[in-house]
UniProtKB/TrEMBL annotation, chains A, B:
Residues 16-439 form the Amine oxidase domain. It comes from Saccharopolyspora elongata. This is FAD-dependent oxidoreductase. FAD binds at E36, A37, V228, E416. Keywords: Oxidoreductase. Its cofactor is FAD. Substrate binds at F333. Signal peptide: none annotated. The keyword rRNA processing does not apply.
């Protein structure tokens, strides 16, 4: 077994959390190694290029103006951005009825959600005034009992629990839902294009940011294709056994989602309360599909490409055509029950369902894309679900206090541990910097 | 790396499911190896003996008359049993009020639960008439909306979601709760002593049954202390990499809970729907504590040692004194929020809380046991929670169909996959036999 030496800190995972942690640790004058299971950096951000150069962001891709960590990184690396195309009309399929925007009854539910989210202390959601009650109820129950119409409940389930939490309202509690919204500053900042979380895109694809962060580390800092299998640890340090060898560290940042963190073998095993977190934060089930066309034909019809729907397998679509790209891209999302159902289908049936709905929304030209590109994050060994993980009902109140709590030499990062923009790259960066600061204080006082 | 040869079937895990599978596979004339991570067999059944010989079952321990697989095994091995002591009065602490049994309003809720449970097809809970609605609601919400009093809701939460599912009503859906009850044939068979799941105990401790099953296999069949780290598999077979070496098999039975099954590395990675199961079945948080006294002093007070309480940290107690033992044992259980809280406490504070409540229930002699023996299954690397795992809300309807579905050469066993007596040894045995039969059919047609 190759022996790779001793570092002040070893970071497990080269997603945004791990890369941000590595930068802060180096800035503090500490020696650092980053171990990444995949052959690339970026984690849940992954840009693929079609042979003609058309860029497809298969994972996370947008940033918003209040995501200050990302705004700063983009500026630091001189990365070119462009506003998400906003011209043209939105389509809302509201129980079969075509609208141009969310109806007032949905906006009323959003307003109520915002007022509830304001009651969540994002550092400690379990100390919210109604935490016990809200954590014991699914968001689906809350919607069913809210007095809103069935179609409004379905819209909110699909657009909030689906479009934001990448699951269904059955799986998450009222508390987790309100925490997630509070963490981003409200429903509108989350759903919005101009001014919201989908405001800005990256020329050349979002993975560039991670690539820049990695290139900006000293050569050899990041070990790719080297999954961490086992961590032996005590208060004074750790030995990490990877597929390729072994590494020693005074401190470790585990910068992977809790569900994956639980799959590393620890010696000694982690305390019961941390184990409780690992078991109670399943990853989202979002399915993102890219339909590539010769041109953005919907624009000629005065449509923005943005659609939201309460019917069919797709909850959302967006014009994802990069500026100057040779072809146009319409990206569609399915979540929750629909996403599971699509995974059960044979590929031809999945294609038929997705294109059928695109045809309903955007006309018959949508039925015949040049290509339909799928990428299933739930089947990816080193991710196992997107967008991010969420506490199950009861999870925050029982185990929330262990989420960020270090265990001896082990510190926890990843967007699931973030306080602001939890679930986004921005939260991942926050979490990596916070874990690095914990280590700096521990080692340097 | 040691090479251990090729078998028709390799079984991962030597709990009741794995041992039962091995027996059936051998009976079909197949060659079998069993790989067990621990240095003992029995899984979540573990008997410890104090120096004076007093037996403590730290995990599962009771069997009931309708657990036919267990009845048959006990008979096969000539294992001696005895009826759980039943003489004397039960104590019910009902919101501070002392009762001698569950009050009528609780029995009314039990009756309603029984009638709902009858609607669950245990083979396919997701096809129950109200499956979608019941899976989207926590049992806590159902209780809160049921119209019963707060104390009745608390009693049912603690006794059913705690005492049976080893968690809290916040964590599991109405559907999972009703499935679990249906799987055992009703509330009374689950809660009952005489005639119920707690009817009978094993002289010398429950682990004896597993020990007998293991001894009855050809010598060398079970490899102890040899955790499976990685399984490379395709439709024609698998290579299993363990801590000690490698094994080949035409078929594999993964006989560990889904949450632990997800921690094995698979190549290729498992399909998205199986991964969905692994992430959505956290283990229970039961804490079982044994107070050892010079004698069963409560019997002289006309008490059976059985208590159920809506207050304090302990939900249940039971007289666990083995016949002829030199000392007496009162065993106490905490679940859900109380179990988590006890894990957060310093050991002295935990002791104070547990003994304080035993004193309240059974008088001042209970305050001073000879010993107080804890064992935290949530901290056990190769278990990570007891009694068993349960689908989170939304889990059954989205992922239930994948629970028992083989993946090429890989078959699934463990009590969490059982149809009858899910969560009990009996269900574990059923599941192992079912997986073995799948393999027999696949290999022998």
């Amino acid at each position: 077994m190759a022996r790779f030496g001793h570092y002040d800190a070893v970071v497990v995972g080269a997603g945004f959390a791990g890369l941000a942690a590595a930068h802060e640790l180096l800035r503090a004058g500490l020696t650092v190694r980053v171990l990444e299971a995949r052959s690339r950096v970026g984690g849940r951000v992954f840009t693929r290029y079609l042979p003609d150069g058309t860029q497809l962001d298969l994972g996370g891709q947008w940033i918003g103006p209040t995501q200050l960590n990302m705004v700063e990184l983009v500026r630091r690396y001189g990365i070119e951005t462009y506003p998400t195309p906003g011209h043209g009309a939105m389509i809302v399929d509201y129980g079969g009825q075509r609208l141009g925007d969310s109806p007032q009854e949905v906006l009323d539910v959003f307003a109520e959600i915002d007022s509830m989210a304001k009651q969540i202390p994002v550092e400690q959601p379990w100390s919210a005034p109604q935490a016990a009650e809200w954590d014991s109820r699914t968001f689906a129950s809350w919607l069913a009992d809210s007095g809103c119409s069935d179609v409004a409940a379905k819209f909110v389930d699909r657009v909030i629990s689906g479009g934001l939490l990448a699951g269904s309202a059955s799986e998450t509690s009222v508390l987790e839902t309100m925490f997630y919204i509070a963490s981003a500053g409200g429903v509108e900042p989350l759903l919005g294009y101009g001014g919201g979380a989908q405001d800005t895109r990256i020329v050349g694809g979002a993975q560039q940011i991670a690539n820049c962060m990695a290139s900006d580390l000293p050569a050899g800092t990041v070990h790719l294709s080297d999954p961490v299998l086992r961590i032996e640890h005590d208060g004074s340090g750790a030995r990490l056994v990877t597929r390729l060898g072994e590494h020693w560290a005074s401190r470790v940042v585990i910068a992977v989602p809790p569900m994956l963190a639980g799959r590393i073998q620890y010696d000694p095993p982690l305390p019961a309360l941390h184990e409780g977190v690992f078991q109670r934060m399943p990853a989202g089930t979002a399915m993102k599909v890219h339909a590539v066309y010769p041109e953005p034909f919907w624009r000629a019809d005065g449509l923005s490409g943005v659609a939201r729907s309460t019917t069919g397998v797709l909850t959302e679509t967006v014009d994802n055509t990069p500026p100057g790209a040779p072809r146009a891209v319409l990206t569609a999302f399915a979540y929750g029950d629909e996403a599971i159902m699509l995974r059960r289908c044979a590929p031809e049936e999945r294609r038929r369902l997705v294109l059928g709905q695109l045809g309903d929304l955007f006309g018959s030209r949508a039925l015949h894309p040049d290509e339909l590109v799928e990428f299933d994050w739930l089947a990816e060994e080193w991710t196992r679900g997107c967008f991010s993980g969420h506490f199950i009902p009861g999870g925050w109140t029982a185990f929330g206090a262990a989420l960020r709590k270090p265990v001896g030499a082990l510190h926890w990062a990843c967007t699931e541990t973030a306080v602001r923009w939890n679930g986004y790259f921005d939260g991942a960066v926050e979490s990596g910097r916070r874990a690095a600061e914990e280590i700096r204080l521990a080692l340097q006082g």
